[in-house]
Amino acid sequence: MSDVKVIDEIPTYQVTLFVRRFNQEDGLEARWEDFDVTVHGTDRVLDALHKIKWEQDGSLTFRRSCAHGVCGSDAMRINGRNRLACKTLIKDLDMTKPIYVEPIKGLTVEKDLVVDMNPFYEAYRAVKPFLIASDKPEKERIQSPEDRERFEDTTKCILCAACTSSCPVFWTDGQYFGPAAIVNAHRFIFDSRDEGAEVRLDILNDKEGVWRCRTTFNCTEACPRGIEVTKAIAEVKQAILRGKP
Amino acid sequence: MAKPTIHHHEYDVVIVGAGGAGMRAAIETGPHTKTAVISKLFPTRSHTGAAQGGMAAALANVEEDSWEWHTFDTVKGGDYLVDQDAAEILAKESVQAVIDLENMGLPFNRTPDGKIDQRRFGGHTRDHGKAPVRRSCYAADRTGHMILQTLYQNCVKLGIEFYNEFYVLDLVMNDGKPAAVVAYELATGDLHVFAGKSIIFATGGFGKIFKTTSNAHTLTGDGVGIIWRKGLPLEDMEFYQFHPTGLAGLGILLSEAARGEGAILRNSTGERFMERYAPTIKDLAPRDMVARAMANEVREGRGAGPNKDYVLLDLTHLPPEVIDAKLPDITEFARTYLGVEPYTEPVPVFPTAHYAMGGIPTNIKAEVLSNNKTVVPGLYAAGECACVSVHGANRLGTNSLLDINVFGKRAGIYAVEYAKKAKHVPVPKDAVDETVALLEHMRNAKGTEKVAVLRKELQDTMDLNAQVYRTEESLDEALAKIAELRKRYEHVQVQDKGMRFNTDLLEAVELGFLLDLAEVLVATAKERRESRGGHFREDYPTRNDEKFMVHSMAYKNGSKIKIDWKPVTITNYQPMERKY
Ligand SMILES: Cc1cc2nc3c(=O)[nH]c(=O)nc-3n(C[C@H](O)[C@H](O)[C@H](O)COP(=O)(O)OP(=O)(O)OC[C@H]3O[C@@H](n4cnc5c(N)ncnc54)[C@H](O)[C@@H]3O)c2cc1C
Ligand code: SF4
Ligand code: FES
Predict the structure, then answer these.
(1) Could you tell me the pTM of the whole model?
(2) Taking every annotated instance into account, which residue ranges of this chain make up the domain Fumarate reductase/succinate dehydrogenase flavoprotein-like C-terminal (chain B) (predicted)?
(3) Which of A51, B367, B380, B396 would staple B123 via disulfide (CB 3.0–4.6 Å)?
(4) Could you tell me what percent of chain A has a pLDDT over 70?
(5) Do the Cβ atoms of B45 and A110 come within 8 Å?
(6) What domain range includes position A95?
(7) Which residues in chain B have Cβ-Cβ distances shorter than 8 Å to A54?
(8) Is B158 in contact with B344 (CB distance < 8 Å)?
(9) Rounded distance, CA B166 to CA B41, Å?
(10) A interface mutation test: which of B59, B106, B307, B503 has the most A CBs within 10 A?
């Protein structure tokens, strides 16, 4: 009764996607495979991947859930840049050329666009990403809007790994904590309610910690949440030098 | 074809689902009993993270408020189908639920004096409907994200054991009691049997039965479907909420917080049409009313756009600073996905399938019921998959994030209490047989039907026939279509034959749950020959308290659906006409 027809109005396009395929079960080397798909003007790369999976090759494998950039499932390399497939509109890419889609780098490929995220999550867990506070308040703790503002930016992280897997240091040194872990440490270090800053700063002062960052800004460019990742890392570096947040 | 390897685990408490409800429960159980949380997604990918607007609690931080007013609003908003004892608990325990989250570290927005800030939301009023009240606690328009992150952070702190990317496909019952769940490990294709003394379902909603929805691809109602297949009843399945402001054509949600901050709905003539439908609280009327009003504007030819098939959400009169500070994410959605600039242009919106009021029947201890009264010992459900019922025929905005926290916590507390005194129910030898058979059938079927085609046809028929307006005829049409799709589903084809990360196989399994739940929804909608809350029957356009002031209880009876009714618990508020 209330079929929405906006989509039908919007022009459709033919595009070619080159997708990086790998499946250890088929015994083949990793390779590019190309698919032609018809997409609508509002379609995202995720829609195109779904069209391939649903209409052409059911074995194409990738993670996804929310489809609007909030769950962090579908970070991948699209035309050489780390992005969320569900936030990348096809019409914003150069449609005269094929679209290249491959898994994010620096993490082991499990199958097609799916990588092993465990090292990434381990780095996150290593920075104690939770509030450390000894008081037991009866009501809410008081925090001024200004104090909250200090860490607001880093609360937006969705753990998509776009930043960490765009970092050249992480590619060559898998031990490096990586930007996402530092972002999540920042979120607590600069929270006026938290008492664990010292411990975290100590962890990040490690040889695999913040000092490995060479400020290439790849992470900031990659972050789909618009977090100023490099700035957060710089603030953590300064805090280490100061010995406090 | 390789047979799956089978692993066995034993826990005191097994929680299925790592969204808000599941993790809130785990925080109660983890420190006291051996707990496993099983989730098909990595916890922070759960759809609780998509929630935007806020979480209701009568903190009275910015103006006078009381839990009693909140209870009343919840009951009235639910068109009196709410169990009032449960609504009282929801409202009373809301304050502690917010404090718990703040204490765990949630970065709520603050008032100038540093307290948790609050804002308006649809249907929440002061003193029984006198005027809108500021009751929603929020963190910009990312409240769900912050809740999900905060709960996960605390699970990390407590060392909770997670099994991520494990799909629970069956509940093993023995003599009327739950013994274990069977899960499929995505990475390997292995099967795992998790025995638990207490088992909590917290698997979220099933918006994917509809085409236009704010729900994630993964919200396929597996948990509710599993309970259904075990012959346990489902309550109030006909009540599904359509949120007024989905991005037109896409369904991506723009929170009611936009209207809470002052945004206005307009039709093609620029008229603020809600003034006609709800003169007192206008754009902040409950969702079912606003969604129908919008659909009606479109039907009567006052829709906007080239096809006149949507209305407009106008934020242009709000200062850009307010938009940036309070509604940053949703305005970005409008920019990214529709290319509309909300500072200067109104945003095309239309109702989107959003929230299941119905689900697995529970009592106020989150215990699952096997009929109107009997508890299934050791089995719990909480969150969107459950029906307590605090939302009745229509959920108020901000009451679900509250529900997952209050009843998630309760599920945890009572599951521990039970696990401490109970023994494990023996797991029968054939525990995995049904699951193995299901998967083998899917993997080996030489069918010709594609999952995506069947799913799309299901979603199309549901949007067409069982959305904001329903009739006997449209529902019959949907039932006939679902019956046809069921037959075709027998011949479904799975292309990927592998064991590792076989999402092709799982999409086929998920479609089975969608078909089951869509059918129950339509069948109960057909029997409820009245209009109430989110369920609107054009052929029976008024509420009929004499006959239908009761919850529906659907039972699986072979391949048929049997529908029974259950009285509503009324404590303080007698049904009145719902006017705003
Ligand atoms: C866009 C959007 C905005 C919203 N905004 C608000 C708001 O502002 N305020 C409000 O009160 N409510 C809001 N809601 C509603 C509210 O967010 C949800 O109802 C609530 O978060 C559901 O939480 P949950 O824990 O029950 O389920 P979910 O968070 O959906 O979690 C379900 C969990 O179950 C797991 N699972 C599912 N199936 C299986 C399986 N077979 N095996 C293993 N695990 C499984 C998933 O992995 C996931 O971890 C919103 C909803 C949406 C969609
Ligand atoms: S900082 Fe940004 S890019 Fe990095 S994990 Fe978080 S959201 Fe993703
Ligand atoms: S699918 Fe959730 S971020 Fe893309």
Answers:
(1) 0.97
(2) 455-580
(3) B396
(4) 96
(5) no
(6) 11-113
(7) 450-452
(8) no
(9) 8
(10) B503
